[in-house]
Every structure is written in C-alpha cells, then in structure tokens.
Design a protein that fits this description.
Blueprint: H1 6-16, H2 19-24, E1 30-32, E2 35-38, E3 50-53, E4 58-61, E5 67-68, H3 70-78, H4 82-93, H5 102-131, H6 136-144, H7 149-154, E6 158-160, H8 165-173, H9 177-182, E7 197-203, E8 209-216, E9 225-227, H10 243-253, E10 256-259, H11 262-270, E11 276-278, H12 286-293, E12 298-301, H13 307-321, E13 326-329, H14 338-345, H15 349-358, H16 363-375
Parallel strand pairs: 10-11, 10-12, 12-13
Antiparallel strand pairs: 1-2, 2-3, 3-4, 4-5, 6-7, 7-8, 8-9
Helix pairs in contact: 1-4, 3-4, 11-14, 13-16, 14-15
C-alpha cells in the first residue's frame, strides 16, 4: 500500500474516522432527526447549539459560529495545528503518514517503549501508595502536607518502596529492565531510582507520563527531591506540569495560574484553583510559553516569594510578552510559596486566593515596582 502524503493523507484519514464518535469523546450528543446536538465545547452555554451532521461529516455552533470538519474540531479541542490534528487522527485510524528511515523508526519505537514503561511505572507506584502496607510512609507524607487522597489520585501520585520493588515487579511481568534503566527508573545496579520517595508523574497535556519528580520520606536524606533524566520521551523545558488537568479550567476562566513547583500546583488544585500549572522549578522557557499559548493568552504568575522567585517572575513577564501574552503577578505575602500560603489559609484558601488574584498588578506594573524598589 503506498504511503499517503499531503492531501491524500487527509482524505484517507477523514474517510476512516467518524466525526460523531470523535466529538462524543468530548461532548454529550443527543440525536434529533438526522443530526446530533450538544453543548458547544468552545464557549459557555446553557442550551445546546452545537450541531453535528453525520452525512456531511461537519459541525456548526449557532452560538459562537465556529464550524468545520473532524480536523478543525480536533485542532480546537486539542489546541494543536492542522498537522497535529492529522497525526492524532491518523494514529486513531491506523494510517501511516510517511515511511520512516530505519534510524527514525528505531527512535520512534524506542520512544514508544519508554512511554509504555513510564505508564506502567506510574500505575505501579500509585498501587503501592494506596493499596499496600509498603505505601504507609508515602501516605504519611501526603497527610502532613494536607494532600487529600482524591487530589493525589487526580495527579496519579505514588510511592516507590525501598530496595528493588519496581525491578522485581518488572521481572515478574517479564518486562525489559533495560527499558526501565533508559527511562530513568532503575539505577545501574538494578535498584529503584526513586526508592523511598513519593513519586509524582510529569505528564503531557494529554495525561501521558513522561517523567517523574520524587520527594524523599527520609529525614536523613539530604536530597529532598530528585528528578528523571531527560530521555527520548522527555525534555524538561518543553513540558508544563498539571496542564492535562488544568486545560479545561484554563479555557473556562480565560487564564492560567503559573507556579514554580509541583506541590504548589497539587495544593492549589486541592483548594479548588484548578487552572494552576507549573514550570517544574525551572526558568520558564520559550517552548513552555508556546505550549501555554495554545491554551490561553493570559498568565497569572505566582512564584516563590524570595528574591529568586521575584527575578524569575520578571523574566517570565518579558518572555510571555515576546509571545504576545498578557501577564499579572501575585505575591504570596507572609509565605514562602503558594503551597505554604494555601495550606496556612485552610478552609479560607479559596477566598484568600481570589483576593490575592484580584489585586495582582500587571506584569508591566510589577516590573516598574521591582525597578523602583531596586533604586531605594
């Protein structure tokens, strides 16, 4: 069978996917005569004005007046471009878009193996945390940080026990230890890389685990946090933590709350601030801003309250401006970071947060205030 390309690829994929089934994964549809109706996923509404025509394989919203075919729908719902929509739908339809060289195929196959291994690891860690006695140290740590089980499960937080728990699990499942080492899950001596740590998956915007960050439960361990290395599946500066969970709320509220650390975001979501995401402790990168730009044009920056956090906020304001994104900057006065601020607020967290967000100055005003403070 010839390899499809250009217009042929779009035509073949479109012929093999059903628009109604694609839309139903995101919208509850009701059949009326020959058409299907539902609430538009692209704007707020109370009455269904979103129509799908299965004969024409097209859709139209009478409210926001958007329209298109299956590619347009996937572009909008997944915040991607036309080529990205083609790739997603081609995978769904089993269409090979282009013939890969042996080297490209090896890289692609390697990445798929790593992604499968990372997904398996996340499931293992989560099971250990909630379903075994070995997970007790992890449960205690989360309890001390006021992270409820419901919130932890949304983030698929887990625990890696001491020793070779994951390695032994892989042997029992007859899975590749070499793949686990390449994914940064095992050390060279075969022991678990994240042993005796609460493990937090770093997932892409669709929820696929790409890497992990892990917090020790031991008092005598100097390195509180360790992270996965970069791999063919993971480049640190290209991922936004929590985006898979926050993307719908970002669209609803019209802006993203950008924080520094994973626990900042986890605590924020537990407090009802579900448009919160994090740069994962790194300086914000161009790739991360471009990713956020697919979902919103406005950022509320809430970084750590120390000098480094303020400097990071200033740099983020300039970087976002370079991508035509609006910014506001909130300061968590009296706390070192958003996590501490929200935990101290307790049941009043949502109210105090709203007050903090409401009075946040624009990025430009924040920069002027910082410059003036530096002169004094």
């Amino acid at each position: 069978m010839p390899t499809p390309s250009s217009d042929d690829a779009f035509a073949e994929v479109k012929a093999k996917v059903d628009l109604v089934k694609v839309v139903q994964e995101h919208v509850r549809l009701t059949k009326r005569n020959k058409d299907f109706w539902g609430l538009c996923p692209f704007h707020q509404e109370d009455s269904p004005s979103f129509k799908v025509n299965p004969q024409m394989q097209s859709w139209y919203c009478f409210g926001c007046e958007r329209s298109g075919d299956v590619f347009t729908f996937v572009e909008l719902i997944e915040k991607t471009d036309k080529r990205g929509a083609l790739q997603l739908l081609a995978e769904r339809a089993g269409v090979e878009l282009k013939k890969l060289s042996p080297e490209q195929k090896e890289r692609s196959d390697s990445r798929k193996r790593l992604l499968a291994m990372l997904k398996l690891a996340a499931q293992f860690y989560e099971y250990v945390l909630w379903s075994t006695p070995a997970g007790e140290p992890g449960r205690r740590l989360l309890g001390s940080r006021q992270v409820k089980e419901e919130t932890a499960r949304r983030f698929q937080i887990g625990y890696d026990p001491a020793g070779r728990g994951f390695a032994d699990y892989l042997r029992a499942k007859k899975r590749s230890l070499a793949d686990a080492q390449e994914a940064g899950l095992l050390r060279r001596d075969g022991t678990d890389f994240f042993a005796e740590r609460v493990v937090i998956p770093i997932r892409d915007e669709r929820g696929q685990p790409l890497a992990f960050t892990a917090r020790t439960v031991r008092q005598d361990e100097q390195r509180k946090y360790i992270n996965s290395p970069e791999t063919p599946a993971y480049v640190k500066g290209r991922v936004i933590f929590g985006l898979d969970l926050a993307r719908d709320e970002i669209a609803r509220r019209g802006y993203a709350v950008l924080m520094e650390g994973q626990f900042d975001v986890i605590t924020a979501h537990g407090a009802g601030i579900q448009n919160a995401v994090a740069s994962s402790g790194t300086a914000l990168t161009d790739d991360q801003v471009r990713l956020l730009k697919r979902f919103t044009d406005e950022l509320l920056l809430v970084f750590d309250s120390d000098r480094a956090g303020r400097q990071a906020a200033q740099k983020a304001v300039l970087l976002a401006a370079g991508h035509q994104m609006r910014t506001r900057v909130a300061s968590v006065e009296g706390a070192k970071d958003p996590d501490e601020f929200l935990r101290a607020a307790g049941d009043d967290a949502a109210k105090q947060w709203e007050q903090l967000a409401t009075k946040a100055p624009s990025g430009f005003e924040f920069g002027m205030e910082e410059a003036a403070a530096g002169l004094n």
